[in-house]
Specification:
Length: about 675
């Protein structure tokens, strides 16, 4: 072969044509985390539910390698590009089981051969080999360094299916993955200079994103004289890393400080003009006219008596509370657009649809076309959407958690704006605090973020809608109400439909189930317990301990956890440590932890686990549930039942407290 060849293939083709793949040493290790994995799973499961004829996974770049065994009819390809998706698909096949066994592995005279091999990484290769016959991750020892990310990924995939809102028929899903998931396999000639190829791959231009195409379509509907200001609004909102007021100022030099200091007063709330797109657009237009009508020559600038100082100059060196080094969003801009569209459609009385069918990064253009653009909105309606987008993004930046880098550690936090004044230089500018604005509010959002298997974060739509309409002082309480009624009630419809009820009526109510009902549900294995209840319990315990001024909450925050730990193990090393089967998988004997903590605890009895916990994790915010468990001197039938009932009681007290406050607020 002397030229590039591309084929559209399925996993069925990989099996029939006996393709094997090698990850070369020059490729980075597997790095995908929960967000990327669950996003891919969301897309695949959605395509399966919609009975699509195919699901396009993406492109894979390979180079064929010569086999030493000339009698071997299989083909070995080195993965040059696309190995993260390909490896994730292999891990998914491990979790889904037997129908994808032929893709995952091939029996040979030398033993089971995995479809994927990692060159010169024996730890990873050994990890893959152990997964093949057992279909479960090796758990007798902690995962080795090179394989740890793969072990975590496997747990993320398992938790996705164990905690899916709608249970998945794995037989039909695996058939869909085997026959309908497609990828473009591009074969590179053997004589290709890989150094030059890598340079091309690394320097290739970024493809035009869907939201940029949508922006162009929408701007066509706006009068050319108005178009620039709305385009600037959109551009400022589209960068989800950082804060929107800074993006706007950097791009336009509009006086955001003046907008922030000027207030709007209504019967419901008092806010800064910067929060309202109507004032921002007006200021952008005035700013443009000022620039056009008052040009100055360089000589005039040099002779000018006034100093030219920016209202948003960089913070002085002595200022201790500057913007954190790096800030990133919990959702993409495409998702923000779809949350905004949901609010827009519900507000409008002129369109057929009152909501969209789903939130999906890949289907952005199709969703907008199907639910709004096909009705050909006029210029005023499109302008209204642009203004709503700014208003939503502003509230998002003001009240919704972001990933903030704090001493090389990414944490969820809410950072608020303030006016930083330099009395010596007589300057002032907008700045963000480096301390959390509302720790309890941020923690509850973080709990929802980590506990939901869907990457779309549907809870954001009703919360953003509430923030747009109401006084922000009740935002924390509203989210508590929303969480209880949305996620602690019987799921009678898809999550997007249930969240729409709160767009129609912010304070919509469902019949909230008692904690006993939710936490006493039978599960054959404790690992199937919905992760939501573990995360929510941590939040309830946090509030309880905070009221007692306990030091246990000092280092506590929500983090990604993917493994359900049995305190008394399923197969204890010492037979005397065993407990009755009816207690083993109950909520009282379980805790949600990271994969590494689960591995280090292994099959030890309570006394050994307690010693390990106290030595390595006590007081470090790992798990408030475990803090309570390991405060016991022993862990027998009575202690497990007592802990279980105490957790149920704490849940019910919290739910009742929020419900009573709702009743008081609404004067019912």
């Amino acid at each position: 072969m002397s030229k590039f060849e591309s084929d559209l293939i399925t996993l069925e083709d990989v099996i029939k044509k006996q393709y094997f793949f090698n990850i070369p040493i020059y490729q980075r290790l597997y790095v995908w985390g929960k967000e990327q994995i669950h996003s891919l799973l969301d897309d695949i499961v959605t395509a399966w539910q919609e009975d699509k004829n195919e699901f396009y996974l993406g492109g894979t770049l390979v180079i064929e390698r010569t086999l030493h065994d000339t009698t071997d009819t299989s083909k070995l390809y080195e993965l040059i590009d696309g190995q993260q998706r390909f490896t994730t698909l292999w891990l998914i096949s491990v979790v889904l089981g037997e129908h994808l066994t032929e893709y995952r592995q091939v029996p040979t005279e030398q033993g089971v051969r995995p479809r994927i091999n990692f060159a010169i990484r024996p730890q990873v290769t050994e990890f893959f080999k152990k997964l093949c016959p057992n279909e479960t991750a090796p758990n007798e020892t902690a995962p080795l360094a090179q394989a740890k990310q793969l072990e975590d990924a496997l747990q993320y995939i398992k938790s996705y299916f164990d905690n899916a809102e709608v249970k998945v028929d794995k037989v039909t899903l695996t058939d869909f993955i085997r026959t309908k998931v497609q990828l473009i396999l591009t074969k590179v000639p053997k004589e290709t200079d890989l150094n030059k190829l890598f340079e091309v791959i690394n320097n290739r231009g970024v493809q035009l994103q869907h939201h940029e195409i949508l922006k162009a379509k929408l701007l066509e509907s706006i009068d050319s004289k108005e178009r620039e200001a709305y385009a600037q609004l959109w551009d400022a909102c589209s960068d989800m890393n950082g804060y929107v007021e800074r993006h706007l100022y950097d791009a336009t030099q509009v006086n955001t400080l003046a907008l922030y200091k000027s207030e709007i007063e209504t019967d419901v709330y008092q806010r800064e003009q910067l929060s309202n797109a109507k004032y921002v657009v007006k200021s952008l237009k005035q700013n443009k006219q000022h620039i056009q009508t008052k040009p100055m020559s360089l000589a005039a600038i040099l002779k000018h008596k006034n100093s030219f100082t920016s209202n948003e100059s960089e913070p002085e060196d002595e200022v201790d509370d500057g913007l954190p080094d790096r800030v990133s969003s919990i959702i993409t801009f495409s998702m923000l657009l779809q949350h905004t569209l949901r609010i827009y459609l519900q507000k409008s009385k002129k369109f057929e649809h009152k909501d969209i069918s789903k939130i999906s990064d890949k289907d952005l253009l199709q969703i907008f076309k199907l639910h709004w653009l096909k009705e050909q909105p006029n210029s005023k309606q499109v302008e209204s959407f642009f203004r709503l987008l700014w208003d939503v993004r502003y509230q998002f930046d003001k009240h919704i958690i972001k990933w903030v880098l704090v001493e090389e550690d990414k944490q969820h936090a809410i950072r608020r704006i303030y006016v930083n004044r330099n009395t010596k230089k007589k300057t002032e500018y907008l700045q963000r605090y480096s301390t959390d604005a509302e720790p309890d509010f941020a923690l509850l959002q973080s709990m929802l973020y980590h506990s939901q298997q869907m990457t779309t974060q549907y809870w954001l739509t009703p919360l953003l809608n509430f923030l747009l309409k109401n006084n922000e002082k009740n935002a924390l309480f509203y989210l508590q109400h929303l969480d209880n009624h949305l996620l602690c009630s019987k799921a009678d419809a898809p999550l997007i439909e249930r969240t729409h009820r709160y767009l129609v009526n912010c304070w919509h109510k469902e019949k909230v189930l008692t904690a006993a009902t939710s936490l006493n549900l039978p599960h054959e294995n404790g690992t199937q317990y919905p992760h939501y209840w573990f995360y929510k319990l941590e939040y309830v315990q946090y509030l309880k301990l905070k009221a007692k001024k306990s030091k246990l909450i000092n280092n506590f925050r929500m983090t990604a956890k993917n493994s359900v730990e049995h305190v008394t193990p399923q197969n204890p090393r010492i037979p005397q440590d065993a407990i009755p089967a009816d207690l083993l998988h109950t909520f009282g004997n379980l805790a949600l932890v990271t994969g590494s903590i689960n591995s280090e605890m292994t099959d030890d009895g309570f006394t050994i686990k307690k010693a390990k916990f106290e030595e390595r994790h006590k007081g470090k915010g790992v798990s408030l549930k475990l803090e309570d468990i390991y405060s016991n001197k022993q862990w027998k039938k009575d202690e497990i039942k007592h802990h279980h009932q105490k957790m149920i009681s704490d849940f019910n007290i919290y739910i009742k407290k929020v419900n009573d406050k709702t009743t008081e607020l609404l004067n019912e």
